[in-house]
Amino acid sequence: MATEPISEEVVGSCVDSHGSAIGMPQLCFDWFPNQIFWLVITLVVIFLVLSRVALPRIAAILAERQGTITNDLAAAEDLKAKAVEAEEAYNKALADARSEAQRIAAEARAEIQSGLDDAIAKADAEIAAKAAESEKAIAEIRAGALESIQVVAKDTAAELVTALGGEADAKAIDSAIDAQMKG
Amino acid sequence: MATETTAAEGSSLVFHPMDQFIVKPLFGDGAIAWYTPTNVTLWLFFAILAIIGLLVLSTSKRAIVPTRMQSVAELAYGFIYKMLEDICGKDGIKYFPYVMTLFMFIVTANFLGLIPTSFTTTSHFAVTIPLALAVFLTVTVLGFVKNGAGFLGLFWVSSAPLALRPILAIIELISYFVRPVSHSIRLAGNVMAGHAVIKVFAGFAAIAVISPVSVLAITAMYGLEVLVAFIQAYVFTILTCVYLKDALHPSH
Amino acid sequence: MEGDLAHIGAGLAAIGSGAAAIGVGNVAGNFLSGALRNPSAAASQTATLFIGIAFAEALGIFAFLVSLLLMFAV
User: Fold this and answer.
1) Which ranges does the record mark as transmembrane (chain C) (predicted)?
2) Which residues of chain B does A10 touch, with a Cβ-Cβ cutoff of 8 Å?
3) Strand, coil or helix: A54
C-alpha cells in the first residue's frame, strides 16, 4: 500500500490521502468501467485463443493418442493371434510326431510279432515232427517189447509146464499167452 | 475501523485489510478512466499469458507421450469436457469453449491472486458480476432461442399440485433472478474473504509475542486459500453447466 | 456512536458465518455417511456435493459481506 500522500482528486473518491481505501474498494463505482473494459478484452482474447488454437489442438492430440493406442492394441491383438497360431502349429507338429512315433512303434511291434509267430510255428512244426518221430520210435520199441515179452512168456510158460511135470503143448501155450496179452 | 484508535495510541498495530484491492494506475497518478492501464490490466494480462503458456505453448510439440505441462493442459481439458458432458449431455458440447474460457480465466486469476503482493482480479465485483451476468444472459437467451415459450416451463412445476403452482412459479422466478447475484458474490466474496483474513493476520504479526502464531495462521489460511481458489472456479463452472442444462432441457 | 453500532452489527452478522459452517458440515457429513454406505455411488455424486457446499457457503459469504459493508461502507 502506498504510504506517501496522494492528492485525492487525482486518484479518485475511493482512496484517502494516505493511499488507504475508503470503504470497500470493491464498491468503488469509479473503477467499474475500467475493470469491466479490461475484463471484456481479456475474456475475448482468452476465448479466441482457446477456441481457435488451444482446444482444437488438445482435441487433436487426444484423438491422435487414442488412435495410437487403438492401433497399438490392434497390433498387439495381431501378435497375440500369431502367437496362438504358432502355438497351434507347434501342437499339431507335436501331435503328428507323436502319432508317427506310435505308428512306427506299432509297425515294429507287428514285424516282431510276425517274426515271432513264424519262429513259433516253425518251432511247433519241428517239435511236432520230433514228437511224431519219437512216438514212432516208442511204438516200435513198444512193439519190440511186446514181442520179446510174448517170447519170454511162452518160454517161461513152457519151462513152468515142463518143470511141473507136464507135457508142454506149444499150441495151447501160444493161444493162452496171446489171449492174456490181448486181454 | 480500528485504525483511528490504534494510530492515536501510537501502536504499530495497523489494519488495512482492504488496501490490497485498490485499483491503481500503472503509470503516474492520474484519474482512472475506462481505458487507463491499471494493476487490473496488468494481472489480467498475466492471466492471459499464463493461460497461453499452459494451453498453447505446452502443447506445441503435440507429443503423444505428454510432458508435465502438456498433461496438465490435457487434464484441464478432460476435466471440463467431462463435467459439461455429464451435466448437459451431448448437445452441451457446443458450448465447451465458452465454459472452458470461464473456468480457465477464473482458476488462473485466483491462483495468480495468491502470489504475494499481487492483485486479485476475481475479488472484485466489477469482474465477477459481468462474468455472472454473461452466464445469465447467455442462458436466458439460449433458453428462449432453443425452446421458445417452452422455456417458461422451467418456472411452471408440472409435478406439483395445481393450487401450489403459481406460488412455486413465483419462488422459481425469484430464485432464477437471484442466480447471477449469488453466482458473482460467491466467487468474489470467497476470494476477498480469504485475502482479507490473511491481511488481518499479517497485521497481528506486528506484535512480537503473537507473530509466530500469526505466521502459522497465515500459512494455514494460505493452504485453505489454495483449495478455495480451485473449488470456487470449479463451483462457478459447474453452476454454469447446470444453468446451461436448464436452458437446453428446461423440463422440470 | 454511529460507528460503534455499526461494529456491533458487523459482529452480529458474523454469526451467519458460523451458521453457514453448520450447513457446510451437514452437507459434507451426510455425504460421507451416504458414501460409506454405498461407496460405489459416491464418485458420481461429488459434483452434487460441491454444488451443495457452494450453496450453503454462499449464504455464509452473504453474512460476511453484510459484516464487511457495516465495517467499511457505512
Assistant:
1) 6-28, 49-73
2) 29-31
3) helix
Asked if the C-beta of A48 comes within 8 angstroms of chain B's C-beta atoms, the answer is no
CB under 8 Å to B157, separation ≥6 — which residues?
Answer: B164, B165, B168, B169, B172, B252
Domain ranges for chain B: 3-248
Range of the domain at A177: 8-182
Nearest Cα to Cα of residue A20 among B20, B48, C63, B38:
B20
For the whole model, what pTM was predicted?
0.74
- The DSSP secondary-structure symbol of A166 reads -
Question: Cell 461407496 sits at which residue?
Answer: C39
State how many domains chain C has. 1
Q: What residues in C contact A25, CB-CB < 8 Å? A: none
Q: Residue B191 carries which side chain, given as an amino acid letter?
A: V
Contacts of B204 (CB under 8 A, 6+ apart): B13, B210, B211, B213, B214
Closest approach of A104 to chain B, Cα-based (Å): 59
Residue B11 corresponds to which cell in the numbers above?
501502536
Number of domains in chain A: 1
Query: Which residues lie across from B25 on neighbouring strands?
Result: B38
DSSP codes joined into one string, B202-221 = HHHTTSTTTHHHHHHHHHHH
Residues B221 and B198: beta-carbon distance below 8 Å = yes
The predicted-structure confidence for B152-189, as pLDDT tens digits, reads as follows 888 888 888 888 888 989 998 998 998 898 889 889 98
Q: What is the DSSP letter of A169?
A: -
Per DSSP, the residues of A11-45 read H-TTB-TTS-BSS-GGG-GGGHHHHHHHHHHHHHH
From the list B102, B190, B204, the residue with the least C-alpha distance to C55 is B190
* Domain hosting residue C46, numbered range: 2-73
Whether the CA torsion B4, B5, B11, B15 is positive or negative: it is: negative
pLDDT digit string (tens) for A29-41?
A: 888 888 999 999 9
